[in-house]
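Hi C.,

You asked whether I'd gotten around to modeling the 377-residue construct. I have! Everything is below, sequence then structure, no commentary in between.
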Amino acid sequence: MRSPFILFIMLLLQVSCNYDIELEFPKSENTGVANCFFSSDSDWNIHLAYSTNISGVYSPANIEGAKVTIQENGAGLTDLTYAGSGKYTCLERPQTGQKYTVIINTPDGAMLTATDTLPVYPVISSIVIHPGTEQLSDIQSTAYVDSVYRFDLKLEDGDIQNLNYYLIRLYKWKIKFTRILLPADSLQSMEDDGYPTDLIEELKNIVGTEFNDLQPLMFEIGKYYLEKYKKDFIQYCEVSIDTNVRMNELIPVNIFANDPGFKGVSDNSFIIMGSDMYFKEAEYSLSLFSPVFGYLTGGSGQSQGFEWINYYDIAETWLELSTISYAGYQYYDTYIKQVLSKKNPFSEPVNTYSNIENGLGIFAGKQTLLKKIHSNY
């Protein structure tokens, strides 16, 4: 027979184990966030939003109804108009070498300010290409790349009186053909150049047929032959190319440099450098390395964020060279450290640099040059 005391304890456990406890947490204040990289070839465009904490929604709330004013060298210049989605714009454009101040009055009474200067435009003196002859073993190891192109650049520092900073990216763009036609007289030329007889026989079936892409040819002459010979084969054809290159079609490619002073994030494919450390003269020589083939960092809509490009793809390489202000340099520098710290569970957290007084974000000058520097077609 059980003890009455044990039965009493069991009864207490049954009726007293559930309680609702209300905990009060201090309400965090949303901080205004302003972001703007301004340049002389774009209209003013500033994005405003409120910050969120880690328990909040992923997308921050845009700020509507703010008064946004731009001053040039301390004098009033223009007011920006709300264009939706947190963006404030106007048709005015910044001018090189001028100092700009943004003054933002938010609907909740806060005033955010920031000041920065627009740097000079970047200048490339010369580019020499060394395609596919370099190995990465002495530069940076990677599981995706065997050999690389080397690009020897000479850059001019257009403002040696001030400290200038640079951001560099490389992109690949797969050339788009709008018309491909193999003339009959090309077959004899290909045969004279040593193309296999069985490939010549396959090509006889498509002589005079127009294609709008290389892809259909894969089913006409066989994928193996196309992959092996298409870079040379296309030179025997009459072709038309879509020359309208769009930024969202440029695929960032991993970029490497053998200078230990360069800072970079391979996932975002850029390096930055500062003239106070590297530019002692008006001209500076620089070698960059990018894959001949391998995984490219993909954009939205691409499988798992990567796209494969191989040696036989017909593609162009584009260089994006930007001069950035010191504020922009600090932003990218801390951003790189923040990205790298996320890959190391034992590293200290890094806050991205902000130059917005009474808020967060970045307001910085940036001048960008986009130039095609190589094509394997």
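If it helps when you're writing up: Helices lie at 4-15, 185-192, 197-203, 215-221, 223-233, 275-278, 326-342.

Thanks,
B.
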